[in-house]
Design goal:
Elements (H helix, E strand, L loop, with lengths): L2 E4 L6 E4 L40 E3 L7 E5 L13 E5 L2 E4 L3 E7 L13 H19 L6 E8 L11 E7 L4 H12 L5 H12 L3 E4 L3 E4 L10 E5 L11 H22 L4 E6 L12 E6 L6 H6 L2 E3 L3 H8 L7
Parallel strand pairs: 2-15
Antiparallel strand pairs: 1-2, 3-4, 4-7, 5-6, 7-9, 8-9, 8-13, 10-11, 11-12, 12-14, 13-14
Helix pairs in contact: 1-4
Length: 327
């Protein structure tokens, strides 16, 4: 039976319609090649450092690197201009796009997607995100930084070598503002602390859990095999969280993305880290979304803002669930 489910983080309705999975070519089963021309040396591989801009930060042994942070050659935001809005006509409003746009290279290894990293390497990536976001927070013109991973062509990647992007901006984007409002209006305790308790209570959408992090296919999943990664420790910001939480989130992503590739398909995906904007004291709980690109958005989704998910999250969790090793 089809159902409407409400996403409490965004306020949007989601249609869960498992029967639509029976349509021909309902799934995108494999990611298309990211780059058509692979004859040139990869700018993110070890030994090709001169092909990118000088590093902002490097992590690893002296004389080498395990994680490297460089400026994006084609930044969406740049400069230190404050956010200033100008009206150019009755429907023409623009603003300065000051900010910073960085690339975090996840590993020197060309094939090392997040699901293939070691626990130590995944923790190092999280530490790099923490350090860079903390530095952004000290810049007076920045109000928010968005960390993302686009893996696969359908997810927006333009270079094969696995990498993350960090965009510091002078405004708070709508998606974050909506989440902030939902946290503020939630009756009772924290929205995501309550989600952890409720999902562990019913059990059948939890795919990974240890003493510091819980990963679920949320009740309101908008796409097949969607995952929500929630640290147990309540903290509004990624960059002020305990190191142990960052390491656990990195490991949980590694395990669950490995499961996605092994149990479902080599599918493109986006990882999006949501953390409270800078200098804001409203209630919030940082977290990460994983949105696989197993299906495509069509006219209904774009015209209404209502997603149609053809894989019930209860079934998706059963496919992805892992046994967490002891110790």
């Amino acid at each position: 039976m089809n159902q409407l489910r409400l996403d409490p983080l965004s306020g949007r309705w989601v249609v869960v319609s498992a029967g639509r999975a029976e349509r021909p070519a309902a799934f995108v089963v494999a990611s298309a090649p990211v780059q058509e021309d692979t004859s040139r040396p990869c700018p993110f591989c070890s030994g090709n450092e001169e092909a990118s801009q000088p590093a902002l930060e490097t992590y690893g042994p002296s004389g080498g690197w395990l994680v490297r942070v460089v400026p994006n050659l084609y930044p969406a935001f740049e400069g230190d201009e404050p956010f200033v809005v100008a009206n150019r006509g009755p429907v023409f409003t623009q603003a300065t796009a000051g900010g910073i746009h960085e690339v975090l290279i996840l590993s020197p290894e060309h094939e090392a997607s997040w699901g293939m990293l070691s626990d130590e390497q995944a923790g190092l990536v999280m530490a790099a995100l923490r350090d860079r976001i903390e530095e952004h927070s000290q810049m007076p013109n920045l109000r928010y930084s968005q960390a993302i991973v686009n893996s696969g062509r359908e997810a927006g990647a333009s270079i094969e070598h696995p990498h993350a992007q960090l965009l510091g901006m002078s405004f708070v984007p709508r998606e974050l503002a909506e989440e902030q409002a939902r946290f503020a209006r939630f009756a009772g305790s924290c929205l995501l602390c309550t989600t952890v308790s409720a999902e562990e209570g019913v059990g059948h959408r939890v795919i990974y859990a240890d003493d510091r992090v819980v990963v679920v296919c949320p009740f309101w999943s908008a796409v097949p095999y969607e995952m929500l990664v929630i640290p147990r420790h309540h903290s509004p910001r990624l960059y002020t969280s305990p190191t142990e939480d960052l390491v656990s989130v990195g490991r949980a992503l590694r395990v669950c993305l490995g499961q996605l590739s092994e149990r479902v398909a080599d599918v493109a995906y986006n990882i999006v880290f949501h953390s409270a904007p800078y200098r804001v004291n409203e209630p919030y709980h940082w977290h990460a979304h994983v949105w696989p690109k197993a299906t495509t958005r069509a006219g209904f989704e774009m015209g209404t803002g209502v997603a149609i998910n053809i894989v019930a999250p209860e079934y998706a969790a059963e496919e992805l669930r892992v046994a967490v090793p002891a110790g």
